[in-house]
Amino acid sequence: MASVLNVKESKVSERTVVVAGLPTDLDDQLLTTVVKIHFEDTDSGDGVVEDVIYPTRTKGVAYVTFKEKTVAENVVRKKKHCIEGMAGSAQLIVSHVSEKVFSSVKAVLDLSVFRSQIRLESLVMDLKMEIPTLCLSPLEANGRISVQGTFLAIKKLKESLLLKASFLSEKNRNRQSPRGSTRRSSHSLKPPRWLTPEATKRGESLVLDTDTFLYLKKKTDFYESTLRTLHVLCQETVDGEITTLCIKNAQGGSQSNNEKQVKEFIEKYSHALHFELRKETLLLEGKEDREKENIKLACKQLSLRYLHVLVNFYKTHIDVIGPPSDTYVFKKEVMELIRQKVR
Protein backbone atom coordinates (compact mmCIF):
# COMPACT_ATOMS: atom_id res chain seq x y z
CA MET A 1 0.00 0.00 0.00
CA ALA A 2 2.80 2.42 0.94
CA SER A 3 4.65 1.84 -2.33
CA VAL A 4 1.48 2.57 -4.34
CA LEU A 5 1.01 5.83 -2.45
CA ASN A 6 4.63 6.84 -3.08
CA VAL A 7 4.23 6.30 -6.82
CA LYS A 8 1.07 8.38 -6.82
CA GLU A 9 2.76 11.17 -4.84
CA SER A 10 5.78 11.34 -7.12
CA LYS A 11 3.48 11.82 -10.14
CA VAL A 12 2.05 14.98 -8.56
CA SER A 13 5.48 16.64 -8.58
CA GLU A 14 6.03 15.51 -12.17
CA ARG A 15 2.86 17.38 -13.17
CA THR A 16 3.77 20.53 -11.22
CA VAL A 17 5.81 23.52 -12.37
CA VAL A 18 7.26 26.50 -10.50
CA VAL A 19 6.29 29.86 -11.97
CA ALA A 20 8.49 32.82 -10.96
CA GLY A 21 8.44 36.49 -11.96
CA LEU A 22 4.70 36.99 -11.48
CA PRO A 23 3.50 40.61 -11.20
CA THR A 24 3.09 41.59 -7.54
CA ASP A 25 0.75 44.52 -8.19
CA LEU A 26 -2.35 42.32 -8.61
CA ASP A 27 -4.70 40.97 -5.95
CA ASP A 28 -3.74 37.39 -4.94
CA GLN A 29 -7.07 35.89 -5.96
CA LEU A 30 -7.09 37.76 -9.24
CA LEU A 31 -3.51 36.70 -10.00
CA THR A 32 -4.36 33.05 -9.23
CA THR A 33 -7.19 33.24 -11.77
CA VAL A 34 -4.97 34.97 -14.34
CA VAL A 35 -2.29 32.28 -13.94
CA LYS A 36 -4.87 29.49 -14.35
CA ILE A 37 -6.33 31.10 -17.48
CA HIS A 38 -2.86 31.71 -18.95
CA PHE A 39 -1.72 28.10 -18.62
CA GLU A 40 -5.03 26.67 -19.86
CA ASP A 41 -4.84 28.90 -22.92
CA THR A 42 -4.22 26.96 -26.15
CA ASP A 43 -1.14 28.99 -27.04
CA SER A 44 0.40 28.67 -23.57
CA GLY A 45 -0.19 25.17 -22.27
CA ASP A 46 -3.12 23.49 -24.03
CA GLY A 47 -4.03 21.51 -20.91
CA VAL A 48 -6.23 21.45 -17.84
CA VAL A 49 -4.82 23.12 -14.71
CA GLU A 50 -5.63 21.02 -11.65
CA ASP A 51 -4.39 23.45 -8.99
CA VAL A 52 -2.64 26.81 -8.53
CA ILE A 53 -0.91 27.50 -5.20
CA TYR A 54 -0.52 31.24 -4.61
CA PRO A 55 0.57 33.20 -2.65
CA THR A 56 3.66 31.37 -1.45
CA ARG A 57 6.36 32.63 0.92
CA THR A 58 8.46 33.72 -2.05
CA LYS A 59 6.93 36.85 -3.54
CA GLY A 60 5.92 36.47 -7.19
CA VAL A 61 6.25 32.66 -7.20
CA ALA A 62 3.40 30.14 -7.69
CA TYR A 63 3.05 26.36 -8.14
CA VAL A 64 0.87 25.16 -11.01
CA THR A 65 -0.25 21.50 -11.20
CA PHE A 66 -1.60 20.12 -14.49
CA LYS A 67 -3.81 17.09 -15.08
CA GLU A 68 -1.20 15.54 -17.36
CA LYS A 69 2.57 15.23 -17.05
CA THR A 70 3.12 15.89 -20.78
CA VAL A 71 1.43 19.28 -20.49
CA ALA A 72 3.77 20.30 -17.66
CA GLU A 73 6.76 19.23 -19.76
CA ASN A 74 5.51 21.23 -22.77
CA VAL A 75 4.97 24.32 -20.62
CA VAL A 76 8.53 24.15 -19.27
CA ARG A 77 9.88 23.53 -22.77
CA LYS A 78 8.22 26.68 -24.06
CA LYS A 79 10.71 29.49 -23.53
CA LYS A 80 8.42 32.54 -23.40
CA HIS A 81 5.57 33.09 -20.96
CA CYS A 82 4.17 36.57 -20.29
CA ILE A 83 1.39 37.81 -18.01
CA GLU A 84 -0.01 41.33 -17.98
CA GLY A 85 0.15 43.23 -14.67
CA MET A 86 -0.92 46.75 -13.73
CA ALA A 87 2.58 48.02 -14.53
CA GLY A 88 2.84 46.19 -17.84
CA SER A 89 3.87 42.77 -19.15
CA ALA A 90 5.79 40.39 -16.86
CA GLN A 91 8.21 37.81 -18.30
CA LEU A 92 7.78 34.53 -16.40
CA ILE A 93 10.37 31.89 -15.54
CA VAL A 94 8.91 28.36 -15.55
CA SER A 95 10.78 25.30 -14.24
CA HIS A 96 10.06 21.80 -12.94
CA VAL A 97 9.15 21.63 -9.26
CA SER A 98 12.31 19.61 -8.49
CA GLU A 99 14.80 21.82 -10.32
CA LYS A 100 15.49 24.51 -7.73
CA VAL A 101 15.36 24.90 -3.98
CA PHE A 102 15.26 28.34 -2.45
CA SER A 103 15.04 30.52 -5.53
CA SER A 104 15.90 33.79 -3.84
CA VAL A 105 16.92 35.34 -0.56
CA LYS A 106 16.08 38.83 0.67
CA ALA A 107 18.11 40.81 3.19
CA VAL A 108 18.44 44.35 4.52
CA LEU A 109 22.02 45.59 4.94
CA ASP A 110 23.19 48.39 7.20
CA LEU A 111 26.20 49.85 5.40
CA SER A 112 26.48 52.84 7.76
CA VAL A 113 29.38 51.09 9.53
CA PHE A 114 31.48 51.79 6.42
CA ARG A 115 30.54 55.49 6.25
CA SER A 116 33.68 56.74 8.03
CA GLN A 117 35.92 54.66 5.75
CA ILE A 118 34.48 55.12 2.26
CA ARG A 119 31.69 56.80 0.31
CA LEU A 120 28.72 54.41 0.53
CA GLU A 121 27.69 55.20 -3.06
CA SER A 122 31.10 53.93 -4.23
CA LEU A 123 30.71 50.81 -2.10
CA VAL A 124 27.30 50.05 -3.64
CA MET A 125 28.68 50.56 -7.18
CA ASP A 126 31.55 48.16 -6.41
CA LEU A 127 29.11 45.54 -5.12
CA LYS A 128 26.95 45.85 -8.25
CA MET A 129 30.00 45.30 -10.46
CA GLU A 130 31.34 42.47 -8.30
CA ILE A 131 28.01 40.57 -8.02
CA PRO A 132 25.87 41.56 -11.04
CA THR A 133 23.17 38.98 -10.26
CA LEU A 134 22.17 40.86 -7.09
CA CYS A 135 19.19 43.20 -7.12
CA LEU A 136 19.87 46.24 -4.90
CA SER A 137 17.36 48.91 -3.86
CA PRO A 138 18.32 52.63 -3.79
CA LEU A 139 20.62 53.46 -0.87
CA GLU A 140 18.71 55.09 2.01
CA ALA A 141 20.00 58.16 3.89
CA ASN A 142 20.62 56.07 7.03
CA GLY A 143 22.90 53.71 5.10
CA ARG A 144 20.41 50.86 4.76
CA ILE A 145 19.85 49.01 1.49
CA SER A 146 17.68 46.03 0.51
CA VAL A 147 19.22 43.22 -1.54
CA GLN A 148 17.70 40.20 -3.26
CA GLY A 149 19.33 37.32 -5.09
CA THR A 150 20.15 33.63 -5.00
CA PHE A 151 21.55 32.26 -1.76
CA LEU A 152 24.94 31.83 -3.41
CA ALA A 153 24.91 35.51 -4.46
CA ILE A 154 23.94 36.62 -0.93
CA LYS A 155 26.65 34.38 0.49
CA LYS A 156 29.21 35.96 -1.83
CA LEU A 157 27.96 39.40 -0.79
CA LYS A 158 28.41 38.67 2.92
CA GLU A 159 31.88 37.25 2.37
CA SER A 160 32.80 40.27 0.26
CA LEU A 161 31.66 42.71 2.96
CA LEU A 162 33.55 40.78 5.65
CA LEU A 163 36.63 40.95 3.46
CA LYS A 164 36.26 44.70 2.94
CA ALA A 165 35.72 45.28 6.66
CA SER A 166 38.87 43.30 7.49
CA PHE A 167 40.89 45.17 4.91
CA LEU A 168 39.72 48.62 6.05
CA SER A 169 40.40 47.71 9.67
CA GLU A 170 43.93 46.61 8.78
CA LYS A 171 44.37 49.78 6.74
CA ASN A 172 43.50 51.93 9.77
CA ARG A 173 46.01 50.09 11.93
CA ASN A 174 48.73 50.68 9.34
CA ARG A 175 47.93 54.41 9.25
CA GLN A 176 48.20 54.69 13.03
CA SER A 177 51.46 52.74 13.16
CA PRO A 178 54.72 54.60 12.34
CA ARG A 179 55.86 51.47 10.49
CA GLY A 180 52.76 51.38 8.31
CA SER A 181 54.00 52.32 4.87
CA THR A 182 51.44 50.65 2.61
CA ARG A 183 49.26 53.22 0.80
CA ARG A 184 46.22 52.50 -1.31
CA SER A 185 43.66 54.66 -3.07
CA SER A 186 40.53 55.33 -0.96
CA HIS A 187 38.43 54.01 -3.84
CA SER A 188 40.31 50.72 -4.06
CA LEU A 189 38.42 48.02 -2.19
CA LYS A 190 40.34 44.99 -3.44
CA PRO A 191 42.09 43.56 -0.35
CA PRO A 192 45.28 41.53 -0.59
CA ARG A 193 44.68 37.80 -1.04
CA TRP A 194 46.27 36.89 2.26
CA LEU A 195 43.85 39.10 4.18
CA THR A 196 40.67 37.06 4.79
CA PRO A 197 38.18 37.02 7.67
CA GLU A 198 39.72 33.71 8.79
CA ALA A 199 43.14 35.32 8.96
CA THR A 200 41.94 37.93 11.46
CA LYS A 201 40.62 35.47 14.01
CA ARG A 202 41.26 31.97 15.24
CA GLY A 203 39.17 29.26 13.57
CA GLU A 204 37.23 28.98 10.33
CA SER A 205 33.92 30.63 9.41
CA LEU A 206 31.26 29.38 7.02
CA VAL A 207 28.07 31.06 5.77
CA LEU A 208 25.06 28.81 5.03
CA ASP A 209 21.41 29.18 4.11
CA THR A 210 19.47 28.82 7.39
CA ASP A 211 16.90 26.36 6.02
CA THR A 212 19.60 24.14 4.55
CA PHE A 213 21.59 24.27 7.80
CA LEU A 214 18.58 23.37 9.97
CA TYR A 215 17.84 20.38 7.73
CA LEU A 216 21.52 19.36 7.81
CA LYS A 217 21.58 19.54 11.62
CA LYS A 218 18.18 18.06 12.47
CA LYS A 219 17.56 15.53 9.70
CA THR A 220 21.01 14.06 9.04
CA ASP A 221 23.69 12.50 11.24
CA PHE A 222 26.44 14.05 9.14
CA TYR A 223 26.79 17.36 11.00
CA GLU A 224 27.10 16.12 14.60
CA SER A 225 29.16 13.04 13.67
CA THR A 226 31.64 15.17 11.69
CA LEU A 227 32.15 17.53 14.64
CA ARG A 228 32.64 14.60 17.03
CA THR A 229 34.96 12.63 14.76
CA LEU A 230 37.29 15.57 14.05
CA HIS A 231 37.08 17.01 17.60
CA VAL A 232 35.86 20.48 16.73
CA LEU A 233 33.32 22.87 18.24
CA CYS A 234 30.92 24.93 16.15
CA GLN A 235 29.33 28.22 17.19
CA GLU A 236 26.11 28.79 15.23
CA THR A 237 24.79 32.33 14.65
CA VAL A 238 21.39 32.52 12.95
CA ASP A 239 20.64 35.85 11.27
CA GLY A 240 17.33 35.45 9.43
CA GLU A 241 17.85 33.49 6.22
CA ILE A 242 21.62 33.22 6.73
CA THR A 243 23.50 31.20 9.39
CA THR A 244 27.18 31.72 10.15
CA LEU A 245 29.25 28.89 11.63
CA CYS A 246 32.48 29.55 13.55
CA ILE A 247 34.51 26.32 13.62
CA LYS A 248 37.25 25.82 16.22
CA ASN A 249 39.29 22.91 17.55
CA ALA A 250 37.82 21.51 20.76
CA GLN A 251 41.29 20.58 22.08
CA GLY A 252 42.94 23.93 21.33
CA GLY A 253 46.50 23.98 20.06
CA SER A 254 47.66 24.93 16.60
CA GLN A 255 46.03 22.09 14.65
CA SER A 256 44.01 24.14 12.16
CA ASN A 257 43.79 21.35 9.61
CA ASN A 258 40.75 19.83 11.34
CA GLU A 259 38.92 23.16 11.24
CA LYS A 260 39.53 23.54 7.50
CA GLN A 261 38.55 19.92 6.87
CA VAL A 262 35.25 20.30 8.75
CA LYS A 263 34.51 23.54 6.91
CA GLU A 264 35.13 21.82 3.57
CA PHE A 265 32.99 18.79 4.47
CA ILE A 266 30.04 20.86 5.71
CA GLU A 267 30.26 23.24 2.76
CA LYS A 268 30.17 20.42 0.20
CA TYR A 269 27.38 18.52 1.97
CA SER A 270 25.19 21.60 2.44
CA HIS A 271 25.76 22.64 -1.17
CA ALA A 272 24.47 19.25 -2.32
CA LEU A 273 21.46 19.53 0.03
CA HIS A 274 20.72 23.03 -1.24
CA PHE A 275 19.95 21.62 -4.69
CA GLU A 276 18.04 18.57 -3.44
CA LEU A 277 15.58 20.20 -1.03
CA ARG A 278 12.42 22.20 -1.49
CA LYS A 279 10.56 24.42 0.95
CA GLU A 280 6.79 24.77 1.22
CA THR A 281 5.22 27.37 3.51
CA LEU A 282 1.94 27.31 5.41
CA LEU A 283 0.81 30.80 6.40
CA LEU A 284 -0.62 31.39 9.90
CA GLU A 285 -0.78 35.17 9.87
CA GLY A 286 -4.34 36.54 9.62
CA LYS A 287 -5.99 33.20 10.48
CA GLU A 288 -8.21 32.53 13.50
CA ASP A 289 -6.64 30.78 16.51
CA ARG A 290 -8.64 27.58 15.94
CA GLU A 291 -7.49 27.34 12.31
CA LYS A 292 -3.88 27.96 13.37
CA GLU A 293 -4.08 25.12 15.90
CA ASN A 294 -5.60 22.79 13.29
CA ILE A 295 -2.72 23.54 10.89
CA LYS A 296 -0.10 22.97 13.60
CA LEU A 297 -1.74 19.73 14.73
CA ALA A 298 -1.95 18.43 11.15
CA CYS A 299 1.76 19.19 10.63
CA LYS A 300 2.74 17.40 13.84
CA GLN A 301 0.68 14.32 12.88
CA LEU A 302 2.08 14.12 9.35
CA SER A 303 5.68 14.69 10.48
CA LEU A 304 5.55 11.29 12.19
CA ARG A 305 4.97 9.67 8.76
CA TYR A 306 7.25 11.88 6.68
CA LEU A 307 10.58 11.18 8.36
CA HIS A 308 12.60 13.02 5.71
CA VAL A 309 10.60 16.23 6.09
CA LEU A 310 11.65 18.96 8.52
CA VAL A 311 8.84 21.11 9.96
CA ASN A 312 9.83 24.48 11.47
CA PHE A 313 7.16 26.34 13.43
CA TYR A 314 7.23 30.16 13.51
CA LYS A 315 4.79 32.76 14.82
CA THR A 316 3.52 33.80 11.37
CA HIS A 317 4.10 30.64 9.31
CA ILE A 318 5.29 27.04 9.20
CA ASP A 319 8.13 25.95 6.89
CA VAL A 320 8.12 22.42 5.47
CA ILE A 321 11.53 21.39 4.09
CA GLY A 322 12.53 18.14 2.42
CA PRO A 323 12.63 16.25 -0.90
CA PRO A 324 10.43 18.01 -3.53
CA SER A 325 7.74 15.31 -3.85
CA ASP A 326 7.49 14.82 -0.06
CA THR A 327 7.13 18.50 0.82
CA TYR A 328 4.61 19.15 -1.93
CA VAL A 329 2.38 16.22 -0.93
CA PHE A 330 2.88 17.01 2.78
CA LYS A 331 1.36 20.46 2.24
CA LYS A 332 -1.51 19.02 0.17
CA GLU A 333 -2.30 16.49 2.92
CA VAL A 334 -2.21 19.23 5.58
CA MET A 335 -4.81 21.20 3.61
CA GLU A 336 -6.93 18.05 3.19
CA LEU A 337 -6.84 17.32 6.94
CA ILE A 338 -7.90 20.89 7.69
CA ARG A 339 -10.80 20.66 5.23
CA GLN A 340 -11.97 17.42 6.91
CA LYS A 341 -11.99 19.10 10.34
CA VAL A 342 -13.98 22.05 9.00
CA ARG A 343 -16.64 19.65 7.68
From TrEMBL:
It comes from Capra hircus. The gene is RBM43. Residues 172-196 are annotated as: Disordered. Keywords: RNA-binding. It comes from the Eukaryota. The keyword RNA-binding applies. This is RNA binding motif protein 43. Residues 15-99 form the RRM domain. One of its GO terms (molecular function) is RNA binding. PANTHER family: INTERFERON-INDUCED PROTEIN 35/NMI N-MYC/STAT INTERACTING PROTEIN, RNA-BINDING PROTEIN 43. InterPro entries: Nucleotide-bd_a/b_plait_sf, RBD_domain_sf, RRM_dom.
